[in-house]
Design brief:
Elements lengths: L27 H7 L17 H14 L20 H7 L2 H4 L11 H18 L3 E3 L5 H18 L8 E5 L5 H8 L3 E5 L9 H7 L4 E6 L12 H10 L3 E6 L11 H4 L3 E4 L1 H4 L14 E3 L11 E5 L2 E5 L16 H37 L15 E4 L1 H5 L4 H10 L6 E2 L8 E4 L7 H20 L1 H5 L12 H6 L10 H4 L1
Parallel strand pairs: 2-3, 2-4, 4-5, 5-6
Antiparallel strand pairs: 1-7, 6-7, 8-9, 10-12, 11-12
Helix pairs in contact: 3-12, 5-12, 6-7, 12-15
The structure holds pyridoxal-5'-phosphate.
């Protein structure tokens, strides 16, 4: 066994050094006199003792175990795992952005304010909205803040107590109903029709004087454009409700259409998805919200204002829902998004959506002979397959996902949206080369053939990974969260 898989503590040797610092000139007994006795260490700290190279190999080894967009194709539907150009990282690391402090005097942070202001202006254009707040730290927090704006609006109209219900289609991302509940609303599920869209009749039956609003993503999580969106917006507005746009699928519509044109009142964007920030490890993200004019007063405070003398921070917004995040949101993510928008330009952003949609349709067409395609129409930036044909052969969607790992691909989103049985949800994104799309399609086709002829190859996968199938139920119920040397799987 090489030492790369060992813990640093296991390969530690007393006296081995990875550094050398000059001897301190400070009298140690004097230090002990100054510090309170209970804070003075009696025993050495038991830190591992290693050479610099051993430490280097250890951490490089850990990073090599990671899978990310820079190591391979990552078609995780809904999550937009696209390549994030390194220019954005360079810009975010400029000293003036990276070493700024949120409490430094306003006149010394004018550049940062200007960047945020310009980003707001760009996002207004992208969304067709009239005002933006960069505060929310993720899509889900944007949803929650947006629904608090719904609430504030209905309360201002004297209908706060009456309008208690948020309508959410059954294809929605799980954060939608969750945010509605956290914002204090009751959730009413709207059934999708046989075309995978919001059913107009089901919607009409659900709206009423108790409707606070409808949450929707367009294209929806099946990758299908809600072609009736204008009528949907009219129905909800006529009933006195508002429309919330979940912008996580903006990668499909950049420069082509806007939620504003579609009739939405409040939107969020996931800058870490559509506007290029490395994500997937849990953050940081940025989920700015945009609103139409008549909701501007409710946006989170404080806000950045442009005045004749420069940029200032305004805090006097009596109708605002308040502050939803410290300072001005995740500024570093906003710098990356601004850099991305400026480096792509308006035409580049249009091209993003054209290529994202083209790639998804290409993959869908290549896979359609081998997998069930529950919806036949052209998709937008992602599409769903059903593994029902393979299930009859004894292979489940989970098995297909596990087998893909042996081919070096990250698995698509599986078992979501909930309305498609044995669902595989595939989002190739615009940044992949055709060769990569073809390699993935070839793997998927080979797996479909194996499912038919030799299903055990698929149900036994993965064969090439450090761990095979995990016992997810036991892992959730009895989690082992400390390193166990006796775990044979981890040792490999
Ligand atoms: C990712 C996603 C969200 C949630 O966004 P976070 O930034 O992860 O909180 C909501 N809706 C859809 C459709 C998504 O893909």
């Amino acid at each position: 066994m090489t030492t790369y898989n060992s813990l640093l503590f296991e390969i530690s040797k007393p006296g081995r050094k990875g550094y050398s610092l000059p001897e301190t000139e400070v009298d140690q007994t004097a230090v002990a006199d100054i510090l309170p006795a209970h804070l003075v260490r009696e025993e050495p700290a038991e830190l591992p003792e290693l050479s610099e190279l051993q430490i280097m190999r250890h951490y490089t080894g850990l990073s090599n175990k990671n899978f990310g967009i820079e190591t391979g194709f990552y078609p995780l539907g809904s999550c937009t795992m696209k390549y994030n150009p390194k220019i954005n990282e360079d810009i975010a690391r400029y000293s003036g952005f990276a070493h700024i402090h949120p409490l430094q005097p306003e006149q010394t942070a004018q550049g940062a304010f200007e960047l945020m202001h310009r980003l707001e202006e760009n996002l207004k254009e992208v969304t067709g909205m009239d005002a933006i707040s960069l505060q929310p730290a993720a899509g889900a927090q944007g949803e929650w803040a947006g629904l608090l704006i719904f609430k504030a609006y209905h309360q201002a109209n004297g209908e706060g107590d009456k309008r208690r219900k948020i309508l959410v289609p059954d294809s929605a991302h799980g954060t939608n109903p969750a945010s509605a509940v956290v914002a204090g609303y009751d959730v009413v599920e709207i059934k999708s029709n046989e075309h995978g869209r919001v059913g107009i009749e089901a919607l009409k039956a659900a709206v009423g004087p108790d409707t606070a609003g409808l949450m929707l993503t367009n294209p929806n999580t099946l990758g299908l454009f809600e072609v009736d969106i204008v009528e949907i917006a009219e129905i909800v507005h006529e009933a006195g409700g508002l429309l919330y746009y979940d912008g996580a699928n903006a990668n499909a519509i950049l420069g082509k259409s806007t939620p504003g044109e579609m009739g939405f009142d409040v939107v969020h964007l996931n800058l870490h998805k559509s506007f290029s920030t490395p994500h997937g490890g849990g953050g940081p993200g940025s989920g700015p919200i945009g609103v139409k004019d008549y909701l501007k007063a409710f946006l989170p405070s404080p806000r950045i204002e442009k005045t004749a003398e420069g940029f200032t921070v305004s805090r006097d917004h009596p109708q605002a829902i308040g502050r939803v995040k410290g300072y001005f949101g995740n500024f570093g993510v906003n710098v990356r998004a601004y850099s991305y928008i400026r480096s792509m330009g308006a035409e580049g952003l249009q091209q993003v959506s054209e290529d994202a949609v083209l790639h998804a349709n290409y993959l869908k067409a290549r896979l359609a002979p081998y997998y069930d395609t529950p919806y036949q129409d052209h998709c937008k930036h992602e599409f769903v397959l059903s593994g029902m044909r393979q299930k009859k052969q004894g292979v489940r969607t989970l098995d297909i996902a596990k087998r893909l790992l042996d081919y070096g691909f990250y698995a698509p989103t599986v078992y979501f949206p909930l309305i498609v049985e044995e669902c595989l949800m595939i989002e190739p994104t615009e940044t992949e080369a055709k060769e990569e799309l073809d390699a993935f399609a070839d793997a998927m086709i080979e797996i479909a053939k194996d499912a038919e002829n030799d299903p055990e190859i698929v149900t036994g996968a993965p064969y090439t990974k450090a761990v095979r199938r995990l016992d997810e139920v036991t892992a959730a119920r009895k989690p082992v969260v400390t390193f166990q040397r006796n775990s044979a799987e981890l040792k490999r």
